[in-house]
Amino acid sequence: MKKEMYKFVYVLLAILALQACKKKELPEAENGEPVFMIQTKVNGSDVSVTAGKDQYYMFTSHSIDDLGINVLNGTLRSQQCENCNHAFTISYRDSHFRNNLIINNIGDVLKVGNYNYFNGVDSASGSTAQGTVFNFTPYAPPGSNYTYNWSFGDGSTSTLANPSHQYTEPADYNVCLTVSSAGYPSKSICNKITMDTTCRFQFNQSMSQNYVSFYTIGGAGSYVWDFGDTAAGSSISGATISHTYSQAGIYRVTLKDTLSGLTCNNVFQKDLLIGNYNGGELAAGFNYSYSNVTPVNPIPADSGFGKVAVHYTAPNGNKYSTYNPYVAHHQINNNFVVTKAEAYKNNEAGQKTYKMEGNFKAWFYNVNNTNDSIYIETTKFTMGVAFP
C-alpha cells in the first residue's frame, strides 16, 4: 500500500513539473474582442497585429523631449524583441504638457478629431518647413518676348519668368513649362524632377551659330544624347559633348541617364533655337538650381490638438517614421484620425493610460536611408498611450 502511495505521488509530481515547464499563454481578450490591435496595409500588403496573439503586447509610456514637450507613447510589438516582426508606435506630442504640467482631465487634450503629423515645425514661430527649394530658369532665345506658365507637379503653378518652388515630399514631380508669344502657337515641355539626388540630372549648353557644346549637371555618368536632328550619329554617349547642326531650326534635345543597377532611367529635354531661324515656332525649355532648407529652432505650438508621429519597424529590422529630420517631407492629403478616446486602466508601471481608436494613412521614411520610403494605410487601430 505504501509503495502504491509513493508511486501516485511521483506521478503527481511529474504532472505538476510538466505543467510548470509549459509556456504561459498570453491572456485572451474579453468577449473574444481584441483590446489593442491594428489592421493596415504596408505598401499595399495586408498586415494585422493584435495584442494577446502571436506574442504581441501593448506597451505604453510617456517621456519629455529636448524641447520640454511631453510625448505620450504606445507601442504594439512582439514581447520577444523590439526590432523583429511588425511593430507600431504612436507618439502623441502636445504642449499642454509643457514643463510636466499635469492635466486633471486628459479628455480635454486627447480627444476625437483629426490630428496633424509632427514635422518639427511650428508655423506660429515663423520657421520654414524643411524641404528642397528649386529655382527655375527658362530657356529664352535672344530677342524672345515670352510669357510663362509653370506647373510644378504637386498642384502648384506660377506665371513668373524665374519662379522658385519648395518641395517637401521625397517623390518625383513632373514639372511642365508652357511658353507663349503673340502671333505664335504655345509650346510646352515637361521634365521629371526627382527628390532622389542620385537620379537628378540636367544639361546646359553654350552655342555659336550651329555649333553647340553640351555638358551634364548631376546624374551618374551613363548618358545617351539625342540632338533632335536626323544627322548620322545624333544619338551618342558622353557627359560632355559637342554637335554641329546642318541647318538652322528649333530642335528638342534629349538626354537620358541609364544608371546601371538602379531604376532611374530619367530623361531631361529642352528645345534649342539653332542659328538664324524664324519658322513660326517657339522654343520651350528650362534649367534649375536647388538648395535644401532646414527649419530654424522649431518649437511645437500649443494648438489644442497635438501633433502625432507614427513609427514602424519592418520584419527585416528597418525602421520607418512619419517624421525624419533628414528627409524633406510634408504629409499632404494624409491624416491621422481618432474616432474614439477613453480612459483605460493603469499600465504595469502604474502610469495612467488612455485608449484611442481610429485610422491613419501616411508616408513613412527610413530613418537610416533617405531614399527609402513606404506608404502605410490603416483601416483601424486601437492603441493605448500613457500620460503624466
Question: What does the model show?
Answer:
The chain has 388 residues and is mostly beta strands. The protein has two domains: 38-126 and 309-387, no CATH class; 131-293, Sandwich (Immunoglobulin-like), CATH 2.60.40.10. Helices cover 5% and strands 48% of the residues. The protein has one helix spanning 2-21; strands at residues 37-42, 45-50, 56-64, 70-78, 87-94, 113-117, 131-138, 147-151, 157-158, 164-167, 172-181, 184-194, 201-208, 211-218, 223-226, 235-237, 240-244, 249-257, 266-274, 286-293, 307-313, 319-321, 336-344, 352-366, 373-387. The longest helix has 20 residues, at 2-21. It starts with a helix and ends with a strand. The model is unreliable at 1-32, 121-128 and 296-305 (pLDDT under 50).
Key descriptive features of the protein:
388 residues, mainly beta, Immunoglobulin-like, 5-stranded mixed beta barrel, 4-stranded antiparallel sheet, 25 strands, 5% helix, 48% strand, elongated, disordered N terminus
Q: What structural class results from the helix and strand content?
A: mainly beta
Tell me about the largest β-sheet: 5 strands, mixed, barrel
Strand percentage? over 45%
Number of strands: 25
Overall domain count = 2
Alpha-carbon distance between the two ends: 64 Å
Estimated radius of gyration: 30 Å
Bulk shape: elongated
Give, in spatial order, the strands making up the sheet with the most strands.
6-21-22-24-23
- Percent helix, as a range, is under 10%
Summed up, the helix count is 1
Low-pLDDT runs of 5+ residues are: 1-32, 121-128, 296-305
If you average the pLDDT, what whole number results? Answer: 78
What's the helix-strand series?
Answer: HEEEEEEEEEEEEEEEEEEEEEEEEE
